[in-house]
Design brief:
With about 375 residues, this protein is α/β, with parallel strands linked by helices. It has 11 helices and 11 strands. The protein has helices at about 40-45, 60-65, 155-165, 175-180, 180-190, 210-230, 245-255, 275-285, 300-315, 330-345, 350-355; strands at about 5, 115-120, 125, 140-145, 170, 195, 235, 255-260, 265, 290-295, 320-325. Strands 1, 2, 4, 5, 6, 9, 10 and 11 form an 8-stranded parallel beta sheet that branches. The chain has a 3-stranded parallel beta sheet with strand order 3-8-7, covered by helices on one side. Helix 7 links the parallel strand 7 and strand 8. Helix 5 crosses helix 6. It is globular, with a radius of gyration of 19 Å. It binds zinc ion (ZN). Zinc ion binds near residues 43, 147, 202 and 239.
């Protein structure tokens, strides 16, 4: 039987415990102080995003374009030129409620052993690499997270592998990628996975001005909400895990939870699926549990996942599904700017597939 656990966060007013759950967190315990920005070369050195997209450099555009903060009208999101000509909603729809959770038809599936609902009030942080306060996983429990999508081929392959084992995961899509591939993001949502956000363009937010970083965060949230068709979870992962105290403070004000990692697969560093599996299993064997950072953007991970899930089951690991107590509240001015930018592309836009063709898949 599934247990639903509500994880109360820093400023949460109440703690609700699920059946038989013997732990609780102090509501007085503050969110972990934000450590110095982690070196981000680990993820960005590969140029995984920039080298595989065909738009002009957003950083240069951003630098050339002075940022405004509210209440002035926002500039359009940077480098939206390749956005799909899909009509955006004039206003944000209401949250669609809990995602679909179809019955598992595989009797031998790894499955989900426990679902937790996270109250993100006060912007709690998770993942021992940067946050120590809320270590909510029991021994043997694993949370799978996937960053940088949605991306053709790789994200659908990841979804298929998860579905075959009836596993639910958490995705941190890039806003720009979401705007390019809303139909894939909608598949992620429809399969019952939890969707947070991962900035607009995967910029190193630790090196941006506060105003620019805030725009990156908010455009990412709005792009995911608009592309998915409804606001998603108030979960954020910093690109390259590069954060600053000012930005974690901003997310706390926005009641958005921050997800670092317990266990980094470094899947972007190899094209060999076996090495991805080995990295994850070796670290899990050593640590015994953890929030695992993977990338549905990466081909090697998409290929590795079916065998990885089998190994997790064989070794007795249990999957925990993260859900959010409430949906994220995107900011109207960013929603409006995103909708306006997309609408501006609609008039004379051709289908993206006829303008941008991938000639080399991510590997
Ligand atoms: Zn990333």
């Amino acid at each position: 039987m599934r247990r639903m656990t509500v994880l109360a966060a820093a400023a949460a007013a109440s703690v609700t415990l699920g059946i038989g759950v013997g732990w609780m967190l102090s509501p007085k315990e503050p969110a972990a102080p934000a450590p110095a920005a982690r070196a981000v070369e680990r993820e960005l050195v590969t140029g995984t995003i920039a080298s595989r997209t065909t738009t002009s450099a957003p950083a240069a555009e951003a630098a050339a374009q002075p940022r405004q903060t509210q209440p002035q009208p926002l500039p359009p999101p940077p480098a939206l030129m390749a956005v799909r000509a899909e009509p955006a909603p004039a206003t944000m729809p209401r949250p669609s409620g809990r995602a679909l959770n179809p019955k598992c038809e595989n009797p031998d599936a790894l499955g989900v052993s426990r679902t937790v609902a996270i109250d993100t009030a006060g912007g709690p942080g998770f993942g021992a690499e940067q946050f120590k306060a809320y270590d909510f996983l029991e021994p043997g429990e694993v949370v799978l997270t996937f960053d940088d999508g949605p991306w053709p081929n790789n994200t659908p392959a990841v979804l298929a592998a998860l579905a075959s084992q009836c596993v639910k995961a958490t995705f941190f899509p890039i806003g720009k990628h979401s705007s390019w591939h809303p139909e894939i993001l909608k598949q992620v949502v429809a399969k019952g996975h939890t969707v947070g956000s991962h900035s607009w363009s995967h910029a190193n937010l630790g090196k941006k001005s506060f105003a620019e970083a805030k725009d990156e965060i908010e455009y990412g949230i709005s792009a995911v909400a608009i592309s998915a068709g409804a606001p998603q979870a108030p979960f954020f992962r910093f690109p390259g895990l590069s954060q600053t105290p000012e930005l974690t403070g901003y997310l706390a004000e926005r009641n958005i939870g921050i997800f670092s990692t317990d266990l980094d697969s470094f899947d972007f560093k190899t094209k060999n699926p076996d090495k991805v599996i080995a990295a994850v299993m070796t670290k899990l064997d050593k640590r015994g549990k953890g929030i695992v950072l993977l990338h549905d953007f990466q081909h090697s991970t998409a290929v590795a996942l079916p065998a990885m899930l089998l190994q997790l089951k064989a070794k007795g690991f249990k999957i925990v599904h993260l859900t959010a107590k409430a949906s994220v509240t995107s900011l109207p001015q960013y929603d409006a700017a995103m909708v306006k930018a997309q609408a501006g592309q609609t008039a004379d836009a051709r289908p993206t597939a006829s303008v941008v063709r991938t000639i080399q898949e991510p590997q």
